[in-house]
Amino acid sequence: MNRSIIYIGAACFAFTFSSIFYYLFRALSIFPPLTEKITIYLFIISCLITLLIFLSHKLPVDQPLLVHLIELICVLVVLILAGAFFDVYPFHVFYIGTVALCGICAYTFVILMVYLNNKIAEKAINQAIAQQKRRGSNV
User: Fold this and answer.
1) Which of 51, 55, 66, 116 is most buried, with most CB under 10 Å away?
2) d(Cα 101, Cα 53) in Å, to the nearest integer?
3) What pLDDT sits at residue 87?
4) Distance between CA atoms of 74 and 126, rounded to whole angstroms?
């Protein structure tokens, strides 16, 4: 699968899960009301996170655990800095902690969705290879 499609999908997953977590914390009266402006900022933040993760994949790191740690740091840095810059949430310790927790949860869900998507693609590829082998042995 084309790597750019994976990054675009990850950005969409990130935006979706970020929005869901924002709605959840808004329902608990923790975050301010969600406006069109904040929705656009959430999308920009999701794209910035994806871009930073894309750039982090250029680093010479091969250990999966370290790669995930670097990705998580990218998520948290962008969430905290861009959130404060765009004034998406009040910049206080409580909100920073809440946003960090949301970021960790959203990151986990995005990684899970990408993993499941890859597993589905892997299964389809393996089935196609098996069918090709069966056709080849029947000739």
Assistant:
1) 51
2) 18
3) 81
4) 34
